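Re-run requested by the PI after the first attempt was lost when the workstation crashed. Everything re-entered from the original request form. Ligand of interest: NAP.
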Amino acid sequence: MNGEQATPVERATLIASLTELPASTADWARLPAEAEVVEIRADLLAAPTLEQPVERLRSLCAGRKLLFTLRSAAEGGGCHRSIARRRELLIAAAQAGYDWVDIEADRDLTPELLDHVAARQRLLSWHGPPQTLDRLRRRFERMAAVEARLYKLIPAARRSGEELVPLTLLHALGRRDVVAFASGPAGLWSRLVAPRLGAAVVYGATGFGPPAAAGQPTVEALCRDYGLPEQRPIERLFGVVGNPVAHSLSPRLHNGGYRALDVPALYLPFHATAFGDFWLNVVESSALPSFGLPLLGLSVTAPFKDAALAVAAGSSPLAKLIGAANTLVFDQGVHAEHGWSAEATDPQGVAGPLAARGVALDGRAAVVVGAGGAGRSAVVALRQAGAEVTLANRGEERGRRAAEDLQVGFVPLAALDLSRYSVVVHATPVGRPAAAAAPGGEAVPVNSELPFGLSALAAGSVVVDLVYGQVPTALVRGVRERGLLAIDGREVLLHQALAQFRAMTGKELPLELGRQLLALDR
Ligand code: NAP
């Protein structure tokens, strides 16, 4: 099937995983409407599930299909019982009326169990370490000798590129009864591409209990950020690469724009521990083009902005000046010898919201806190607008070097006197919310840390926070409580994305649509 456009399932079936049973009928009613199946992770629940009559569970789940899973500790689950006891419980679940029962190919396939769990109830699974394609294919062939409703193969991805193995298997098989993706943060994007290659189901967390697997997005995020369960036609991929990326709102913004403007593309979160591995094993691999889904553009976030500049065949003068790139676009144009060109749109992220609010910068004293790619971009943006810029950084050596390169003043963060500035840009990761899930799937801010004390802020000051969460950060809230203007990092994200969106799709992302997608009124 090399080079062919993959045939996706038309509509994926979403499975909502419960690692904790909702406490009340009202909580059960908050299960995401888009999920057609509810997975009871009996290995992770505190209470014994088989004492709950299936009909009662089914009615609490509003008639959805029920999947019983008792993942063994050997496959990364929470079930430490003997193999014999596990099999008894699986048989009991099948007899109690669960629609599907997850049975593990490596330990559950006894004649007795197969007699009691009907083929239509069997979700035959395997979870394990990274695999070569040959090994995974042989494993699938052994599993396929047993009749089942669905075959599920989940190898881990420990380094970038390993997540392509299950996707390549899916593509080669071209079946609708196989689900394969990679577990772990690097595998996150493979969960989202798998239905494009025929995997019929996608698992999502619910916020009732912790996610059943590291890197599992909530059902709400699958729908809102990636448009599931529908599968719009797509011809190319874009994405954001960083570490971490699971918290990024870029997929929501770009995919929302694609849906509204009918761009046949999907924007993915690429978690990488080493940029070089990601570049060689994913970007330069022939796998994605062979699926008919070439990767044609990347947003780049911390800590890879310097590395991104190094891999591009061509880069803009602005990216060279900053020494970092946040955008890589594959371009057949004359400037890109090997196709990839680097651009820096972060300065626009700072300049855009200030200009949109009519904040004049000419001659104003401004300080940028943080000397990474984002801080250096902010320095360039403010200086271009005529501000007198000082750079403040925790680490003196790095800060002084960046200030010298950009020809602005430097002050160690410990000696920063905010009262001397009327424009303050915060460009360190301090205050970044942990991506925790709450019932209903919303990530909640749990970080109330401030990067600096606010009492010295002068009247009339404006503060730009590059850090963002689903709702305003502690810094933004604190500044607003003082009656001062604070620019939310989501607004910075939106403005730096405008040029990225244009470079990747050739279309304009309407500002108002972006504000809605990022819930900027909250
Ligand atoms: P980076 O290259 O990792 O730079 C980190 C900077 O933060 C360094 O100057 C570092 O100082 C400082 N820092 C780190 N931890 C600190 C701490 N605990 N206390 C004080 N300073 C600390 O990252 P970056 O790419 O510049 O990004 C910085 C932040 O801006 C990130 O949170 C990123 O997500 C955010 N950002 C947001 C947008 C947006 O669109 N909203 C765009 C770009 C960046 P040392 O030199 O002392 O280590």
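Saved to the shared folder this time. The longest strand covers residues 35-41.
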